[in-house]
From TrEMBL:
Belongs to the TMEM43 family. GO terms for biological process: lipid metabolic process; nuclear membrane organization. One of its GO terms (cellular component) is endoplasmic reticulum membrane. It is a multi-pass membrane protein. It comes from Chytriomyces confervae. It comes from the Eukaryota. This is Transmembrane protein. Pfam families: TMEM43.
Length: 434
């Protein structure tokens, strides 16, 4: 549902804008200068530690039950089609999930969201002084989202009030243990299961009958409405209705009727404060079986394995055909994906640093950024140089001194080359030739 809000006009002096923007820019610049290098340093260290732990695990992992003997506290790999996880239940809704390794309750909230668009222009007042006039138009959209939005800061908070009730928030639940062949897998290992989530779309008539007497139904009015959703309508108290009406009168929205309001009344869109809950589960079956990697403890229990460098390993896959090599490689690949994300973030950070501290003109100068192709070449080249230097320093500190030093020297060479008069003359002559 979409509603048009009101329009406000703000007038500000350039001096006021400059003081605030300079302070904000300095604060953001300070945070930006330290955030990306620290992030890539942390990720480089994390991947190095994970890689060392995976190498250690691959050297000593024992596959059971094909190998009849494994010493206590060793890292083992167990795969079997004989699976029986402990029963998971959601007591608030009176539901049980047979065969589930993990479940996820997903709570969604019907909430108003506020948006605004600005149109600004500079004009002169009676004294000839410049001032910026900004015309800000507000709009509102009501949707199902996964979080609540405080509406007290809205431009029209009474007309678009968001109740913040949250009696049964989203949560994940893991089976306390699972029987896997002759072994018992601890819940701490099962928590690593994160593939194969299935939306629970159908419930038996007995399960639905059970939920009608649940805590969620009796205390918050949840009822099953089909397609896997449990719905709780929001009911305003008499006091809240009075206060909201008074607030709408004060803010001038009491008589603000729009077409969207009529459509909402006719077609029954959700009301702000309504809740809906659905469930997802990772379910294991004897047909698929399961595989785990962890530490062999007493009484054939399998828990979390701690490598010599402190990295904890406990892996679960919803298939009996998954090898230890595949599971450990997946763990390492997952860590490396975050590292590549850190590299990309560092490159974007490098672009910003080079632009603001190397190529951006003075405030009094005419903006010329990207007016010539050479500006783009220099920006990219110096950004890559800064990327190499930053990543290289992180590698020097954490993992590979030789590779890191090579990257630092390469970055310095690129930066020196891009700053040289000969290179800039070459770019200038190329532009004239083109």
């Amino acid at each position: 549902m979409f509603r048009q809000g009101r329009t406000r006009v703000f007038v500000s002096r350039p001096q006021e804008e400059n003081c605030f923007m300079q302070f904000l820019l300095q604060l953001v610049s300070l945070l930006a200068l330290v955030s990306a290098p620290l992030f890539v340093l942390y990720m480089q260290h994390s991947v190095g530690e994970t890689g060392a732990a995976v190498e250690e695990a691959l050297r000593s992992v024992v596959s059971l039950p094909s190998n009849k003997h494994a010493p206590p506290n060793s890292i083992v790999h167990v795969a079997s089609h004989q699976v029986s996880p402990d029963l998971i239940s959601d007591d608030a809704f009176g539901l049980q999930f047979e065969g589930a390794v993990r479940t996820r309750r997903k709570t969604e909230y019907c909430q108003w969201m506020e948006f605004s668009t600005d149109e600004s222009h500079v004009e002169r007042d009676e004294d000839g002084n410049e001032r910026t006039v900004t015309r800000r138009t507000y709009s509102y959209s009501k949707n199902w989202i996964s979080y609540t939005i405080p509406s007290f800061a809205f431009d029209q908070p009474a007309a678009h009030h968001n109740p913040l009730r949250d009696p049964f928030p989203s949560k994940s639940t893991t089976a306390s243990f699972m029987k896997l062949g002759d072994y018992t897998v601890d819940g701490s290992v099962l928590e690593s299961a994160n593939d194969g989530w299935v939306f629970k779309k159908r419930y038996s008539s007995d399960a639905i009958e059970e939920t009608s007497q649940s805590i969620a139904s009796l205390e918050s009015g949840f009822r099953y409405i089909g397609n896997g959703y449990f719905y709780s309508p929001y009911e305003q108290s008499g006091t809240e209705k009075f206060l909201r009406t008074a607030g709408m009168a004060l803010e001038g929205s009491l008589l603000d009727f729009q077409i969207a309001d009529a459509v909402n009344a006719l077609f029954g869109s959700c009301a702000a404060g309504d809740l809906r809950v659905s469930f997802e589960a990772i379910v294991t079956t004897p047909g698929n079986g399961a595989s785990v990697v962890g530490k062999l403890k007493s009484n054939n229990r399998i828990g979390i394995y701690t490598a010599s460098n402190g990295v904890k390993i406990g892996l679960y896959e919803n298939s009996a055909e998954t090898s230890a090599l595949s599971m450990l490689s997946k763990l390492l690949w997952s860590a490396r994906k975050w590292l590549w994300a850190a590299y990309f973030a560092t490159f974007m950070w490098s672009l910003g640093v080079v632009y603001f501290y190397r190529l951006k003109p003075e405030p009094s100068a005419t903006p010329v950024m990207f007016s010539k192709p050479s500006d783009v070449y220099i920006l990219l080249l110096e950004s890559v140089a800064l990327l190499f230097a930053t990543v290289g320093m992180s590698k020097v500190v954490t993992s590979s001194f030789t590779l890191g030093l090579s990257l630092v020297l390469s970055g310095a060479a690129l930066f020196a080359g891009s700053s040289s008069d000969r290179f800039r003359m070459f770019l200038t002559s190329k532009e004239k030739t083109d």
